[in-house]
Amino acid sequence: MQRHTFLKLFSAAALASLGLTLGASAALAQTSQSIPFFYPVNVGGPINKIVDDFASSFNASHPGSRIEPIYSGNYQETLVKALTGFKSGTPPVTAVLLSTDMYTLIDEDAIVPFDGFIKTDADRAWLSGFYPAFMKNSQAEGKTWGIPFQRSTVVIYWNKDLFKEAGLDPDKGPSNWQELRDYAQKLTKKDARGNVTTWGVQIPSSGFPYWMFQTLTTPNDVELINDRGTAVNLDNPKSIEALQYWVDLTKDGLHPPGVVEWGTTPKDFFEKKAAIIVTTTGNLTNIRNNAGFDFGVGPIPGNRLQGGSPTGGGNFYIFKKTTPEQQQAAFDFIRWVTTPERAAQWSIDTGYAATSQAAYDTDVLSQYGKEFPAALVARDQLPISVAEFSTYDNQRVTKVLNDALQAALTGSKTPEKALQDAQQEATRLLRAYQ
Question: Which UniProt keywords apply (predicted)?
């Protein structure tokens, strides 16, 4: 009887203890905030796994928050999903979107500035540590709206084997427009029927044609936008000269005709269909892993200026219509994931430029740069880089420019006419912001 009574008492105590344990677990689960995080996948390579690992590591060390990566398509699709969610009252708490989406997000009143989260000297040192070139597309109206994460410049890649076959120095890329043209002539190959089997140079004109165009306008000493996102400079004679140069490469059979796909350009390089390609440094690790031949990486060739590239890539943003606690948790994650050590490893794993000098000063990235100097090309262009094309009403203004570029490249308009028409329409769209 006593034993039976003891077992009853023990069972009751065990159940009570179990109830307390389950209750504590449930309470912990309830206090662990869900932080939906929209992330675009737009460049080759195992990016998803890296982002998943970041989220898992942060969650393990921050039990009060649960970062939940949601892979939301390419940049454009991710922006649409984020704004649709915002308008319906269910935005992500944070998202990586193009740095050029800043004015669109401000205009939609969809994001909060980061300034309110900066409270300590350490926070201020962190914010001031990002390269100024990357902050050009991150700050406006005296506030910081985006935090640089997967940022880049445009670079050129070349096949060293094809350079050797053409009698070119495999360790030296073209340094100016004339050299680029001369190299392309020597590198272009045709079969017995006269069909091109290897193009001398390939610049993609789908996806981000405006960005590729800036790799020609920047070294030609012309900026396409003002620093307030309210005016464009498309019909400047130097802009027209830059587009004419691109069109002439195609007319002279040195560059593929028509619209060249962004996504297939690295593959064309792997398959030796193009000897020189122009694309983001965010493709560096992808190309290193898949090229199957020695390749070079160099800065954008110059013309009127020594060189220069637009910056590019994505920033972190924090959305309104989320709780202050969620926003703080998102900021904590962004602060955590952009520390120099993690930014350094991210650069190595992806090919994106590290976003601060402190990241390049880490032992791991310093050593990597010595072993693989190509990883430093994007960084070394930053002092002469310009802001990526971005304005208010950015989606429509950018489409106007993209359509004009493709009209010139397909031959339906001259470069001059295409850019004059684009200037007129873009000015009309931006009039309300002036």
Answer: Signal
